[in-house]
């Protein structure tokens, strides 16, 4: 190795080279630093982009969302359907309540008018109608019959809810009985109120009174309670139903034929035209010569042909057109006396056109129809038990 003296040219050149090399080194180091940064930048820039995340589930999640949307749609639909059903049911209940209330109102009106018709009719029987003849009486009864027919027609036209079927049947039967009874009375009233009364007419009117009584029982025991029960069960508030009875409080009086005849006489205003009392009395009844007693069984000949009935005029006035009716084992028979003077006794002979079975107890009822003005009628009738022997 050659030694170079300091300060010599060689030394100077070497020093210069050394400095240059150092500068280059430093420069390179600096450049290397920059290069590293650039490399790092390049490395950072050249990092691959983050891959997009895959949605969890993919098609399966879409199916789940579709099912959720369907379930929500079904739930909304069910909710709407429930509301629709509730609303529809509410409408049906309101409609049913309205129908029941309307039926109750219509029938109540009909029965109220039928009750008033009954009051008018029995006011007529009690002499308040102002009729003066049997024909006038018939016209008044026909007017009541027409009213009953109109009420029956109205009841049949009423729209009947299903719950009221049984009640409606009872209502229609009630009004039908009243219409038919008044028709029968109108057909027989002229004969029943004539001076020469016939037993058949009186019997027919008596049977009609029984029908009127039955109509009241049908309404008060079946029709009215059934309507009230349905309204209560359905929770429907409605005004109270009317009494609806056709016959008055003393209805049973009109079921007694003797009392009925007195009422029929009053119907035409037939009263005594002379002073003193009027009255008839049943004296005795005999069959085949055997006088009957009311308190025991009476055996009479099987070949008996007629019933003999003795009637006494126990009043102060002469009487005409005296009628006697007989019921033998359900068979109605009739007879008449043309006239009886005051205090006179007459005999009515009624042929036995039909006789009951031999050897059996048979009820015989005899009724002498009261005359106009007669006040006491308890002695006008009697009932016997008879046995037609061999």
Overall form? elongated
Number of helices: 6
Mean pLDDT: 79
Question: How many discrete structural domains?
Answer: 2
Q: How many E strands?
A: 9
Helical residues, percent: 40-55%
Helix/strand/pairing category: alpha+beta
Order of helices and strands: HHHHHHEEEEEEEEE
Taken as a percent bin, the fraction of beta residues is 15-25%
- Biggest sheet features: 5 strands, mixed
Runs in which pLDDT lies below 50 for 5 or more consecutive residues are 1-5, 9-14, 18-45
Cross-sheet strand order for the largest sheet: 3-9-8-5-6
Rg of Cα set: 58 Å
Cα distance, first to last residue?
A: 194 Å
Put the structure in a nutshell.
The protein is α+β, with helices and mostly antiparallel strands and 390 residues long.
What does this structure look like?
By secondary structure, the chain is α+β, with helices and mostly antiparallel strands. The chain contains six helices and nine strands, in the order H-H-H-H-H-H-E-E-E-E-E-E-E-E-E. It has helices at about 10-45, 60-130, 135-155, 165-190, 200-235, 255-265; strands spanning about 280-285, 290, 295-300, 305-315, 320-330, 330-340, 345-350, 360-370, 380-390. A five-stranded mixed β-sheet has the order 3-9-8-5-6, with helices on one face. Strands 2-1-4-7 form a four-stranded antiparallel β-sheet, with no helix packed on it. Strand 5 (about 320-330) and strand 6 (about 330-340) form a beta hairpin. The protein starts with 8 loop residues before the first helix and ends with a strand. The model is unreliable at about 1-5, about 10-15 and about 20-45 (pLDDT under 50).
